[in-house]
Every structure is written in C-alpha cells, then in structure tokens.
C-alpha cells in the first residue's frame, strides 16, 4: 500500500516543540501556525522569553548549502545595518539546523504590517533601502543558489502544465499563446544587457513588516541571482501613468546608493509574465501537499485555465508596449 502522507504531516505540536528544544530552548506549549505554503512556519512560545519563529524548509527544495547562502546574505545585510530579520545563530555557530529529516531555522519575532505602496514617502524609503541592499548584493555572487531565467521560470513551467494539467479543450490555445510569449521574451532578454546580482527575489508587500515609519524585510527564501528590476517591479501598481510616478520615486531613493540600468525597465512585463507561468507550475508541483487544494481550490478548474490563458494573451500585448520611461 502506498503511503500518501506528506512529509509536513509529521509537524505535530509535539514534533515542533521537540525540534525547537533540540536547539537548546524550552517551549511553553504555545504554538501558532503562520501564513506560509512553500515551507511551514510557526510562532513558538519560549519559557521566560519572547516567542520565536521556527521555519521548517520544504524537503528536497533547497540543499543545506543553498539555505546557508540565503542566511549568509541576510547576515551581510544586517552587518551593514539593513533592517532585515535574519536567522538566529545557535550556540554551535550554526543557523541551519537539522531535526528528524527537516532542515530548519529560527528567527526573532518582529511585529508590523504590510506597507502602503500608494504612499509616496513609503516608496522613497523602500527605494533607499533597496539601493543599499543591491549594492551589497552586487559585491558577491551566489555559488549554490540559482539564477532567474526563462528556462526554469518559463520553459519548464509550461512543460509541466502541458504534460499534467491543461485540459484538452484549452491545449491548442495554451500551447500557441505560451509558445509566442516565450519567443518574444527570449528576444527581449537577448536585447537587454542584464547584470545579475543577489536579489531578494520575492519583494512584495507581504515580505515587509512596516512599523514606526520603517520596514523590516523578511523571507529571503527565494533569494537568487537576478536583475535589479526583479525587486522593483512588484512595488508598482495602478495604471501606466501611476507606475511611471512610482518608479521615479523609488529610483530617486535607490540611486542614492546604487546605480540602476534603465534598460531593465524593458523587463518589467517579461518578469511579470514569467512569474505568472511559474506560479501555475508551482501550484501544480505542490498539489500533493494537502495545504494547497485547501488554500487554492480554484486551481486546475476549467474556469481557472480559461482565465489564465486570457491573462497570458493580455501579457502578449503588454510585453510589446514601450517600456516605462523615467
């Protein structure tokens, strides 16, 4: 009989407390699950101390060396006084711990709320901090973590959806649309001089904790090599005119600390498209995790694929439009 249990099913309250106590802490039995799907993250009460955040990494996604590179990047940023919530270093000098087959890390608890990107002052502050982050990110390269590229985000994502998920009635439309999208994306990338550096990789409002008019940056789980614009485009919202105002404000702060290549503005819709393709593949790859059907019940429905293809067709037009101008 096939064992259909998911590895995360082992994360019972007793297991979580035993894992944290194996690092040298004493739990007080208060455990609160936090919003996370790729990994599993919990706030754990600690006797006579502040609660800690424990993160169990998804098995077989990152190697220990790749996780260590994520942590080392965070430590570099903290050393330069960037407001980054970095992992806790244990008494043995490690920040990546292993318990019963899981790689895990501990973090201090930080309060805050998502920032308002409609507030121009907030964008200026984030731009300054992001410029400092990228200046440090430019100083070294990741040697174990991957690079954002059209193969992993685009071709591999499309191949997975084609082989396992796309309904027959939408196959021809999906194949034609994605084939043309990837062709145009390859052409744009070939014409753009991209300087890859260490980036956060998933720099949206949910990964910032805003408090007392300043943010803390969290969750560097998707950190990898990529263009600077990867950490900028997700800050933009609204119509084209509003986005032009936003990019000017962000770069006003950003360029106080790091030079930005304006040619990368051509990559905004390219990266948005690749993220859309990769998101569908991410859901498909994780569908055996019980948390995913519960959280994303609309995935893999006929309606979902119809809307997804419509959005991809809209991106065909978007990537052909002139880039935002400064």
In short:
This protein has about 325 residues and is of the alpha+beta class. About 40% of the residues lie in helices and about 15% in strands. The mean pLDDT is about 95.
Characterization of this structure:
By secondary structure, the chain is of the alpha+beta class. It folds into 2 domains: 9-108, Phosphorylase Kinase, domain 1, CATH 3.30.200; 120-318, Transferase(Phosphotransferase) domain 1 (Transferase(Phosphotransferase), domain 1), CATH 1.10.510. 42% of the residues lie in helices and 13% in strands. It has 9 helices and 9 strands. It has helices spanning 13-21, 64-79, 120-137, 150-164, 168-190, 240-254, 268-285, 291-295, 302-318, and strands spanning 27-33, 40-46, 52-56, 97-99, 102-108, 197-199, 208-211, 214-217, 224-226. It has a 5-stranded antiparallel β-sheet, covered by helices on one side. Strands 6-9 form a two-stranded antiparallel ribbon. A hairpin with a 6-residue loop joins strand 1 (27-33) and strand 2 (40-46). The protein is globular. The termini are far apart. The model has no long low-confidence stretch (mean pLDDT 95).
- Beta-strand percentage? 5-15%
- The N- and C-terminal alpha carbons lie at a distance of 61 Å
From the alpha carbons, calculate the radius of gyration and give it in angstroms.
21 Å
- Give the total of domains: 2
The tally of beta strands, per DSSP, is 9
Number of helices: 9
The CATH class of the largest domain: Mainly Alpha
Structural class: alpha+beta
What is the name of the CATH superfamily of the largest domain?
Transferase(Phosphotransferase) domain 1
> What summary fits the major beta sheet?
5 strands, antiparallel
Oligomer: single chain
Summarize the helix and strand pattern as letters.
HEEEHEEHHHEEEEHHHH
The overall pLDDT average reads 95
CATH topology group of the largest domain? Transferase(Phosphotransferase), domain 1
> Which geometry do the CA atoms define?
globular
Low-confidence stretches: none
Strand order of the largest sheet: 1-2-3-5-4
The name of the CATH architecture of the largest domain is Orthogonal Bundle
How helix-rich are the residues, as a percent range?
A: 40-55%
């Amino acid at each position: 009989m096939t064992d259909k249990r998911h590895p995360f099913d082992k994360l019972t309250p007793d297991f979580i407390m035993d894992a944290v106590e194996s690092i040298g802490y004493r739990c007080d039995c208060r455990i609160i699950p936090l919003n996370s799907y790729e990994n599993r993250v919990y706030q754990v009460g600690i006797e006579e101390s502040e609660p800690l955040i424990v993160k169990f990494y998804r098995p077989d996604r990152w190697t220990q060396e790749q996780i260590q590179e994520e942590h080392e990047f965070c430590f570099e940023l903290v050393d330069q006084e960037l407001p980054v919530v970095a992992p806790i270093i244990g008494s043995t000098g490690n920040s990546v711990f292993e318990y019963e087959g899981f790689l895990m890390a501990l973090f201090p608890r930080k309060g805050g709320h998502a920032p308002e990107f409609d507030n121009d002052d907030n964008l200026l502050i984030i731009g300054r901090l992001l410029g400092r982050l990228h200046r440090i990110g430019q100083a070294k390269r990741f040697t174990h973590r991957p690079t954002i590229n059209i193969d992993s985000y685009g071709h591999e994502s499309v191949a997975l959806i084609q082989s396992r998920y796309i309904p027959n009635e939408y196959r021809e439309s999906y194949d034609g649309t994605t084939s043309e999208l990837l062709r145009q994306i390859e052409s744009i990338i070939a014409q753009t001089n991209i300087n890859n550096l260490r980036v956060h990789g998933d720099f949206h409002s949910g990964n910032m904790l805003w408090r007392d008019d300043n943010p803390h940056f969290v969750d560097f789980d998707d950190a990898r090599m990529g263009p600077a614009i990867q950490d900028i485009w997700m800050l933009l919202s609204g119509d084209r005119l509003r986005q032009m105002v936003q990019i000017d404000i962000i770069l006003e702060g950003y360029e106080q600390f790091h030079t930005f290549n304006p040619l990368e503005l051509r990559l905004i819709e390219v990266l948005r498209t690749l993220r859309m393709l990769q998101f569908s593949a991410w859901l498909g790859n994780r569908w055996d995790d019980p948390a995913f059907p519960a959280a994303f019940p609309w995935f893999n429905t006929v309606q979902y694929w119809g809307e997804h293809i419509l959005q991809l067709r809209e991106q065909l037009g978007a990537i052909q439009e002139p880039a935002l101008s400064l």
